[in-house]
Amino acid sequence: MKRTLKPGTKRRRPPLACIQCYQRKVKCGKEFPSCSRCVRAGIAEECTYRGVSTHQKDGMTSPARSNYQEAAPVPRVLSSESGLQAESQPTPAGIHEMTHLRRRGGLVQFYGYSYHMNFYQQFPALRSYIAGVKAQYPAINVARDGVFPPNHESTTFGKHISVPVGTTVLKAVIPSKSVSDALVQTYLDRFETTYRVLDRSAFMVEYHCHWSGSTSTAPFFLAQLLLVLATGASLHSETYLENETKASIYMQTVNWIDAAESWLTSTNNVVPQSREAIAGRCLVLIAKRANYIQSSSFWTGSGELMRLAMAAGYHREISPAARISSYDQEIRRRLWMTIVELDVQAALERGMPPTLRPDDFYIACPLHINDDKLCESLDCTEVAVPPGKMADTSFQVTLLQSLPTRLAICAYVNGCDGTMQFEQVQELGEALHTALQNIPDWDSRAADPRQQKLAMYLSTLLKIQLCQYLLLLYTRFICQSPHSFHSTICRRARLDASTTVLECYRRLDDDGILPKHACQTGLMVAALNICHEIFLSHSPCEAISMTTSLGVAGHLLGAVEQVLAILETRISRTLHGLNEYYLLSMIIGLVKTRTSPETSVINDKQAASRAIQVCTFLHTARASLLACDSPIQPV
């Protein structure tokens, strides 16, 4: 029945929004054939407009959409609370938004584009593949229930940091001198060379005074020492530090961080914006990240630390009228750049835009000098080390040169406006490529084997850092653009960056410079993007691909399976990383089946056995910890 209007009544303009958005009373993107909101909600096929028939809509499907018809829902990995959720669906190329809202009870956590666990959304068939493997091997669900009890009885690390501690407790938990010597040296060689927090010379003077017992040790130093020990212990592969102790090295590390952080945050003697307090908070973040503790709070912690530093004026160069010594100015510069690097790395790992942009702070570059030249009357012209020669600040000074480019990439990848022209992407990529080429060759100038190892470690770590941004830059452009020659170029560049990251970690492990479980920055992102490239290369519509030639895919999958070995080592040490291991093992099975369908039965069995084996180990280990009333954290 046709509606009749009363005389004088204006006819209402029909709504432009799609029927689904109009009924849900939400803002519609008004794109055709399916609006972006319906695509994100996973109901793209139901999205219809008034006056448009179904065959009209189907006939106007864009090429970008037709290439990605299988918009896969998010696979439920292991636990509805600890794993990935099944509420959202990835969108086709051109409007792909790889973000995730994790729900834990009443708590909702957002994880943005560059969060490594979001990259599974690039695999349309993953959810159905996991469901098929679980149907064949129901023991996976049984093993999963052992790790994730129905009532989620596991406790988190955060519940422990509640009891204030005094100086006596700090002294009591410090290990023997022989153990401390080894861990302090590891920290100075592998962490203080990258994140500049301490004056090495001043720290070692206090360290020797502490063990000599000639003077009473300051509580600030005790807290710093515990955090230094915890960070250095993260690189030791032994299960126990001392034969007489029953606690594992990891559990001792947890206790050290717990005690130091409790003292720093609870005592009335700590001024939050003092240099010692800011340095202590830097060490807390570094120690937690090195030991995979409270990873989800790394970004919020770095942001809080940055605001404390800004409140103390660390983000601005000191004027001469402030009467701050050259020594203090140099320490402030080092601490500020360390805080900025921690924050941008935290933003990248959480999928957030950077807290600050280059215009938000102005401070001179830290001096390229050795710490033994630091003094109150610091003369920059006399103590500066030539750029080609390695110094105690070489890593920080070199990495700082690419900071504006890396901040721009982080903002592009994780910002709300994810569109960028190919020329802009190319410009950012060229800037990073130049930074890679400008990494000094310290190795050839190192005098002794220990210095040569340090030089190789620093240059390799710089390469990993820069390649991490390269592959995220190109991955973002690939997902925002339909298939084209430009996206093909970016796919090849992404593959090169990903393989470089894995090769760098392989070299560090083979040369005994970095243990497997300590490989972290960019590792999962590189592995998942290699799998994605192999997956795309073996699609029926792919015309030219390097990974389909000369058995290259097999070699690449072999490198990715080494990442599984790294994650296995990490899990056995920290009981953390199950979701990453499970996800990667399933994706490897999916990709192997895509490249060799005839081996699907073997691939499914291998993926299932890996998941069951790791879940069984975790169940046993966590049960023993709970029996001893020891702290555990989410897997």
From TrEMBL:
Keywords: DNA-binding, Metal-binding, Nucleus, Transcription, Transcription regulation, Zinc. One of its GO terms (molecular function) is RNA polymerase II cis-regulatory region sequence-specific DNA binding. Residues 17-49 form the Zn(2)-C6 fungal-type domain. One of its GO terms (cellular component) is nucleus. One of its GO terms (biological process) is DNA-templated transcription. PANTHER family: HEME-RESPONSIVE ZINC FINGER TRANSCRIPTION FACTOR HAP1 (PTHR31944), ZN(II)2CYS6 TRANSCRIPTION FACTO (EUROFUNG) (PTHR31944:SF130). This is Zn(2)-C6 fungal-type domain-containing protein. It comes from Aspergillus fijiensis CBS 313.89.
